[in-house]
Amino acid sequence: MEHPMKGHNDCSTETLIHQLQCNYCVAEYIGLTTETFRQRMNSHHFDSNDYNPEKPVALILTHAIALELHNPSPIVAMLPSLAKLLVATYNDETVNVDMDVNIGSYKEAVNVYREWEKSLVCLAQYYDRVLMSVSDEEKDLKFGSNMQTDMLHYFLMSLQYGCNHIYQSMPRLLSIYLDYGTRFADIAKKNKGSRVQEVAAMKGYLDKMSNLMDNYMQRLPPYMFLTAFSQIISRICHPLPDVYSRVKMLIVKLILAFPQQCMWMFIASWKSSFPLLSKRSHEILQDPLLKQARLNKFISDFNRLADKFIELINTPVDESVTSTTVSDVVRGLPLLFQTNFSKIMIPVQQLRSIMLPSSEDGKNLHNPFPRSMVYIVGMDEEVTILASLQKPRRFGFRGSDGKLHLMMGKPKDDLRKDFRIMEFHSIINKYLQKDPESRQRGLRICTYSVVPLNEECGIVEWVPNLIGLRPLMLEMYKDRKILVTGRELKKVACAVSDPVTKKKKVFLEFLLPKHPPVLADWFRQTFPDPYSWFCARTAYNRTTAVMSIVGYIVGLGDRHGENILIDCTTGDAIHVDFNCLFNKGATFDWPERVPFRLTHNMVDAMGPMGVEGTFRRTCEITLRMMRTQQDALMSVLRPFVYDPSASWGHSVRVGHVEPTNELAVKNIREIELRIQGMMQTKNKSFSLSLSVEGQTNALIQEATSVDNLCQMYIGWGAYL
Fold this sequence. Notes:
This protein is of the alpha+beta class. Among the domains are: 14-71; 318-335 and 343-461, Phosphatidylinositol 3-kinase Catalytic Subunit, Chain A, domain 4 (2-Layer Sandwich), CATH 3.30.1010; 466-644 and 652-716, Phosphatidylinositol 3-/4-kinase, catalytic domain (Phosphatidylinositol 3-kinase Catalytic Subunit, Chain A, Domain 5). Helices cover 51% and strands 11% of the residues. Strands 4, 5, 6, 7, 8, 9 and 10 form a seven-stranded antiparallel beta sheet that branches. A three-stranded antiparallel beta sheet has the order 2-1-3. Helix 2 packs antiparallel against helix 3 and helix 7 crosses helix 27 (630-637). It is globular and about 75 Å long.
């Protein structure tokens, strides 16, 4: 929160409320000094250096405001609430008091100053932690229902006063409301004519929740709900008509406010092969509010364009064809833009990323997207067929900015998981940007736009200047005339049932000697001057480390040499193909045994220190950030449980209407344990929680272990 200072204030000013941040331990101090601020600083410095060397010295003044006794500012009024919140948090973490006392402490922090987002979120999260210790049956009784109603209310209230915690509040409040409705529908269906009082009581609580949702859907600006649009879409098959009507109302409201961005996200549900999902998507788009002349034409044109794109991507081509034209594949597609066609935004990352307001001023009028949109005005005729089994094809949109925007159409590939993971990576980037150590190093995950068109195809933003790790290294081996052919590899490849000793011998005595490290040489050749080489190597180390940790947490597998790409202009490591999630790789015929890809070539390219230095430190910073933001990150991941697009496998159970999955619940729990520092042992159980440094070290050892690498499938390329 920012507050303008009145008058002139400097280090000679007395009676200052101050916030100090220490240079050494990054601790913050908030207090009121009655002496001059200079005396306060000198006194602290003297005490720390001469009498108590362990006491940190606060050297950086981050904020200082004058105390306004006659007209207290919001930040002054907030201080008592902050003090009470610190007490409540301390008692919570140390388990000093029982639940009722701690709830009272959190409520005191809220009641002292009701316009502070953080205190409201903390109270709701404490309720959430209490609720997790309650059995499933008790959650729907009076105690649990009351608590869930209060949680929903406090999360919604918090969003009135800011959006610093929106990725914790919004996904969780939607889950509370929608899950309670699902459980009520289950109980009401199973107990027709019995347990009448219990069903009536649940109906009363659900009505209260629905009224809260109605109220705050009017109060809160639409972009706040847009941050969870994917989650909202995934629940349009809700079994309860009252809840579904509110989901529908919310989607209609968002399409009215942001038609360009919403339709690119909504199209996969509209074109879905899941009958109820497709039916309800059509119902939503037939809502009277969307029948305005211009908007109705936009939706109709968008539908026509989506059908043409699906045809362009899925139309078979001959094996020998490497290029064709748009007109040859879909005759009517170029003609669309020659008529009075609606303006449709090009789906690139820059135009789809939500930017939250940086301050409370103008929060309700904030526009989360760039003011200048780029629209599709035509198609480039050239279509390049890429050399891959599914025959993906590259084509280009001509934009209203005069530029050609390249895209890749992927047939026979469900991109809905990729889209959700890209959303998750964007949220990871926001928290990396907030963390001081991460921000100082510019840590991030390289993201790009993904648009699923249905369950079988989609569009991916083309990122230029990329080369796959495998093609890169094979080309280097070919230039050195030491390339090992596929036939030679097949001759020495072990069977999955072969003993580890044989696999290890083949790996150490044939595969590694035939494939010496060359990636470091590629960096030196591609970035010949010292400065560009150092920047590229640093970028490679950091992006590899960030993605290694994030990939490990979400159980990302199938990291063979064609799913990791290197940017030839910056050295960034970019990952693609996120279909193998939540430790799915461990269930393969050749189970994956490493947490992430860290082969000898990748380590050699990191420099003389290898994994020590930049790589290890970046891993630790990323892991520490994820532990700090565990609540927010899990709030984003948990909705996967109810997302029919997640395609969890053959164990999906379709109940009355809405698909759910027990395996998903197990996977989400394992993600929580990994974030908390628990490592899986050989007997598949979890160890005690490790420190950030200990967990990082254990992961690096697992990823570089010869015993693990030699047991990987030959196509994964552990020898590269």
